[in-house]
């Protein structure tokens, strides 16, 4: 598609951008002239040539455009149509995705890193007053104030490190991949700001990606050099090293923040580290280390540059990114204000007519019958749902026992093996779920095992596995009882009672 556009273009500028997050619209061609942008989702090669020819004649918004948006000529974020999937939620940290040059773009405009460099104490106080929480499974401060680890790292002896943890092998979750692939300069600006707060050099910022994400890694490298040059322009610091961009294994456990450090140190066998001490005190090669996901770093940048957009009175200030997937034709990544309901995500995708259940939290999320939950960490945690940034929607033909069982089997095969609850508990849990098909439903034993795993696992792998089963049992108990009686209510399973 890009080659077709460039071949057809003569006088117009052609820019390749990242994904908007709404995959159903892609490939997406935008034509922008003097404060007017037309959207053309999924055009054919011949349609693309026609679009380019019209653009060269100064025409924007012919009858075949899906949307036409009027906006300021110098707008720095994607102009949003009044309806359709892009209008779902807001686009604060997603604003550059699908609009800016992913290999530069936002780096030369407002800089959170420059603000943090000029007055680090004021920047840290601003983040502390807002009470910003970590956003992802790969954050050392997931669902906890980001300033706690920053303060510890500032006080700890040694040369600090900042790790941008983008290694997510769960392809249900496109949040961090969308951000780093579409607006890497903004993510890196947030990483540079954190580095300024803890006293880390640019060369001690490490962007840790999944080995399969070649395009994301390429864009991150180009953007890292651009952001470094922009930050150092006009200073006497010389030409510092750019952040390192590296690849990690395509394994689910490799995204857990302590196992990310194990992978970065080159260990072949990844195991969760004992805590305390956390990475902020003893991290990469024993150095004080901040580990944050792109989602969190983008929020940090926004909080430093636009503090008035964050309400410190909220339990979870800011926005949360969510990938909507499951029984949908095409997934979409949207951004929800944390006071809004998860139910809004249905408008971003072609959801089933009847949604029987949702799994909130990704590979090892929690099951629910309702999406009427506020998109905040406290609300989701209190509902035993995950905050990892995934909402899977399932239709009436999905079996909760089979779906939960698949996840427990994954946990039994993919856990790091270091702690007994995660290693043996997942195997025992899988066995107990299989016995339901044979007519033996040990409800009390399942609940006790999930309680033990939840309270004694070394990392959140075992806790999340327990959550998946516990919520399935709590909210779909009659279905499990039906399986024990020899019947699958959804008709998805072959059940034979022995």
From TrEMBL:
Q: Name one GO molecular function term.
A: metal ion binding
Per UniProt, residues of the NADH-ubiquinone oxidoreductase 51kDa subunit iron-sulphur binding domain are: 401-446
What Pfam family does this protein match (any one)? NADH_4Fe-4S
Keyword Transit peptide part of the UniProt annotation: no
Q: Which domain of life is it from?
A: Archaea
**Keywords in alphabetical order:** 4Fe-4S, Iron, Iron-sulfur, Metal-binding
Q: Looking at the keywords, is Metal-binding present?
A: yes
Q: Which family does it belong to?
A: Belongs to the complex I 51 kDa subunit family.
- Protein name according to UniProt: NADH dehydrogenase FAD-containing subunit
Provide the species name: Natrinema zhouii
């Amino acid at each position: 598609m890009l080659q077709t556009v460039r071949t057809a273009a003569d006088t117009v500028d052609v820019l390749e951008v990242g994904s908007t997050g709404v995959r159903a619209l892609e490939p997406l061609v935008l034509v922008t002239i003097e404060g007017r942008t037309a959207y053309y989702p999924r055009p054919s090669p011949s349609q693309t040539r026609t679009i380019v020819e019209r653009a060269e004649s100064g025409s924007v918004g012919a009858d075949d455009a899906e949307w036409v948006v009027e906006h300021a000529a110098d707008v720095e974020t994607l102009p949003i149509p009044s309806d359709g999937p892009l209008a779902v939620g807001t686009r604060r940290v997603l604003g550059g995705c699908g609009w800016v040059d992913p290999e530069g773009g936002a780096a030369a405009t407002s800089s959170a890193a420059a603000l943090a460099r000029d007055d680090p104490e004021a920047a840290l106080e601003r983040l502390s007053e807002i009470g910003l929480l970590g956003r992802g499974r790969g954050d050392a401060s997931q669902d906890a104030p980001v300033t706690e680890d920053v303060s510890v790292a500032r006080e700890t002896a040694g040369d600090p490190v900042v790790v941008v943890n983008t290694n997510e092998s769960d392809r249900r979750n496109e949040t961090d991949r969308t951000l780093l692939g579409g607006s890497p300069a903004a993510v890196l600006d947030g990483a540079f700001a954190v580095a300024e707060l803890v006293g880390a050099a640019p060369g001690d910022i490490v962007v840790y990606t999944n080995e399969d994400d070649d395009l994301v890694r390429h864009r991150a490298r180009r953007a890292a050099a651009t952001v470094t040059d922009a930050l150092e322009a006009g200073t006497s610091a010389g030409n510092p090293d750019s952040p390192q961009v590296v690849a990690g294994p395509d394994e689910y456990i490799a995204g857990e923040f302590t196992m990310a450090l194990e992978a970065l140190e080159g260990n072949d066998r990844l195991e969760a580290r004992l805590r305390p001490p956390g990475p902020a005190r003893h991290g990469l090669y024993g150095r004080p280390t901040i580990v944050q996901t792109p989602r969190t770093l983008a929020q940090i940048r926004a909080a430093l540059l636009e503090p008035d957009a964050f309400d410190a009175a909220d339990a979870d200030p800011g926005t949360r990114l969510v990938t909507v997937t499951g029984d949908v034709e095409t997934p979409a990544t949207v951004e929800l204000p944390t006071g809004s309901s998860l139910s809004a995500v249905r408008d971003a995708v072609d959801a089933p007519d009847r949604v029987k259940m949702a799994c909130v939290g990704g590979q090892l999320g929690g099951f629910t019958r309702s999406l009427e939950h506020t998109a905040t960490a406290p609300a989701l945690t209190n509902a035993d749902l995950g905050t990892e940034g995934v909402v899977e929607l399932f239709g009436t033909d999905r079996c909760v026992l089979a779906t939960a069982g698949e996840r427990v089997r994954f946990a039994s095969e993919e856990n790091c093996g270091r702690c007994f609850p995660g290693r043996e508990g997942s195997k025992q849990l899988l066995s107990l779920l299989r016995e339901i098909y044979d007519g033996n439903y040990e409800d009390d034993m399942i609940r006790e095992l999930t309680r033990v795993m939840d309270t004694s696992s070394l990392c959140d792998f075992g806790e999340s596995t327990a959550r998946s089963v516990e919520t399935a049992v709590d909210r779909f108990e009659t279905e499990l009882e039906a399986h024990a009686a020899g019947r699958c209510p959804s008709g998805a399973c072959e059940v034979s009672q022995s």
